[in-house]
Amino acid sequence: MDLERRLRDLKDRMTYIRDIFGTREDDSIRLLEARLGEALEREARTPGSVSAEELARLDDLFSFSERKLDTMLTPMDRVRIVRHPQRICLKDILENVYDNYTEIGGRGEFNIDPSMCIARAYFSRRVGEKVVRQMIMVIGHEKGHGEAYRNGGSAKPWGNAKALHYMKVAETENIPVHTFIFTPGAYPVEDWPGAAQQIARNLYEMAALRVPVISVCSEGGSGGAEAIGLADRRIMLSHGYYSVISPEGAAAIEGGLRGGERATPELIARCATRLRITADDNLQNGYVDRVLREPPLGARPHHYEFFRELRRELIQATNEAVSEVKSMKLFRAMAVRASRTDEAESIFMRWNLSPSALNRLVELRQRKYRAMSRHARLDGTGLFSRAAAGARGTVDAVHSYLRYDLLGRQKKRLDAMFEELGAEAHLVRHKLLMPLKRSMDKVLVSGPEGRRGVDPHEELTRLSCPEDGACLSGSQWAWISPRSQEDRTVSCPNVRTHHCPDLWVPDLLGDFAGVCPNCGHHFPMEYRWYLENVFNYRESREFNRDLESINPLNYEQFDLKLDKAKEATGLKSACLTFETTIESVEAVVAVLCAPFRGGSVGAAEGEKFIRAAERAGRKRQPFIAYVHGTAGIRIQEGVNGVIQMPRCTIAVRRYIDAGGLYLVLYDTNSYAGPVASFLGCSPYQFAVRSSNIGFAGPGVIAETTGLPVPPNYHRADHALSRGHIHGIWDRREAKKNLHQALLTMGGRNLYYR
Q1: CA–CA gap between residue 430 and residue 386 (Å, rounded)
Q2: Beta bridge partners of 489
Q3: What is the Cα Rg of the chain in Å?
Q4: pLDDT tens for residues 720-737?
Q5: What would the pLDDT profile of 638-664 be if each residue is shown by its tens digit?
Q6: How far apart are CA 213 and CA 333, in angstroms?
């Protein structure tokens, strides 16, 4: 019976090897198939004819061949490894790494989202004669071993919401969080709470989560991975991958595929290589802290030594995160830094942290992400200009401190005291003088000409227009689209339902600002229209103009595409940042410009956005993000692009926590990573009418889920009904509404709440 089981195990190993390498031929694979085929054929013909010694030799041959094949793995082979049903899953880790655990928030398919698994677990450690249990909150994607209901580890919005809920529970209980990333990407459902919005909430909260967070990545697909991946220590399994997009998705974009077309295996494999998605690539780029080596061809449930190594790695990483911020470090902190992973269990350290240590933990986490992706952008600012900018920043910070902190706090106290005294005096004055005022009003109204010679009835009913002008302001805009010079007419898309007349282009794109005067449909408008007519760009001061997008992965032909975008737009990246004044209100603005590579975000755009948020914080000014359109994270930059999601979200979180007013205005098409992070985390999000907003486009949703996408699924009014945004604005009223929002949401000094 034991021989049958061993023979069956060898057969499973052969199937696994063939699944990983696909149709690729190799002498080692052919030799294994031949030897195993002979043994199986002989055993089928004469049961018991295969001896234990022969099976042992065959097992040794498999082990030798697996080690050899492991050195030949391509990035796409690693993708197939992490997706294979025999790959270890989170349940295997819970069973073999932790000493005990209890699954919470549902079990198996009786769960709000079976692809997200939550458990309370602990490590048992012996300290002298005493056994200590160190509690951990374990949160991760559960792929299982082929169970369909797990959805391949693609968490839905409510699964990510469940993860965030238990992160906050861990924060309340002051216990570390271990997250395990096993996902090809988040499930693109826009229904409440919405895929993009929930990932943005997770990132925003994790940016300042006051407990140590350790993440382990096996399969990290874009925003789905980031939803639980913002951590103090990031460990990556050596056969895993971490990427901005799946190789298949990248191939579909590179190949321009439409209508259900499939990319060739060769193109998919090339994209996997170009994206630099492997563990060693990410370690080299600084996006993971260490790589945990797996057995040949990847860890599977029977690799018990690997689980022991993972346990030691988790303890070591948690000890490091804790010792770095503890006030009394003494010898154990030095021992943790100097020790090897195999010594981790011999060093005990309490994982509960004091409030001051937790503050240091959050600060170090935020600094860590701030320092990432420096190699993936080009800063053409000269040395003198950098020094001048640094000096100006220091002056702004000192000025703001003196004005708002040192003197401002005292002024606020005095203002509050005088307001209270003034309110008391006003009430006394009102009570004493009101009877006299009423008597005087009766005398004036009963006079021969009435009050000021005006009939009281007429005064109450006449329009409140100024005497020297019309109620409506003129329709002259500071900037008019060049398309308005075309001498032709266009039809409104709503002509059949609203019977709109044909529109003459000079009127439509000139006086009407691209808005149908009959139904209000918004035609697309250039971002320059908003710069000049809403943000007063001509009188603004642009900064960080010389931060430039580059090709950090040397992605094939991408340099040419970047050069073409720079020449066509006159921009060096898709992000434009400047200081401006909106109706006497000073503000810092960051614009994502759709004409530059679809407004996609890479390392340069992320850095410009972060510096804009920091500048707004130093100068105590509101921070406005205008999204003329964004196609998401720039896939050609790989993880250099996707890491901007947590980086920019941390910058926004720091700005808001300091008291800043952060407001986002969407236009045209806004999708994917930016919406699921630093844009979607704003407490004040608005959209120009006829905008499209969501986590993924209709084609991606249909291909991923297999479900039909309703018409207008991403329109602004649907986003408003789902709670994604908080208001819809007419383009012609954008400046007025923006000014009103700044006054009503920012208050008197427009920075501190």
Answers
A1: 59
A2: 504
A3: 31
A4: 988 889 999 999 999 999
A5: 999 999 999 999 999 999 998 899 999
A6: 18
Which residues neighbour 134 within 8 Å (Cβ) at sequence distance 6 or greater?
A: 122, 123, 125, 351
Quick one: CATH architecture of 83-305? Alpha-Beta Complex (3.90)
Report residue 620 as tokens.
Answer: 């105590």
d(CA 580, CA 535) in angstroms, rounded, equals: 7
Start-to-end C-alpha separation, the chain: 73
Beta strands in 86-189 (DSSP E): 100-104, 106-107, 110-111, 116-127, 130-141, 177-183
Question: Each residue of 43-82: b (16+ CB within 10 Å) or e?
Answer: beeeeeebeeeebeebeebbeebbeebbeebebbbbbbbb
The residue whose two tokens read 């880790």 is 93
Write the DSSP string, 385-403: HHHHHHHHHHHHHHHHIII
397 token code pair: 């910070």
For residue 108, what pLDDT is reported?
A: 74
Angstrom distances, CA of residue 368 to CA of 242, 364, 389: 18, 6, 23
- Hey, which residues does 687 pair with through a beta bridge? 666, 728
Strand partners, 590: 577, 625
Residue 471 in this model has a pLDDT that exceeds 50: no
**Tell me, what amino acid is at 178?**
H
Three-state secondary structure call for residue 539: helix
CATH architecture of 527-746: Alpha-Beta Complex (3.90)
In terms of DSSP H, where are the helices of 182-329? 195-206, 222-226, 247-254, 265-274, 279-285, 304-323
Residue at token pair 């486009």? 697
Q: Give the pairing of strands 130-141 and 177-183.
A: parallel
Residue with tokens 């993936």: 376
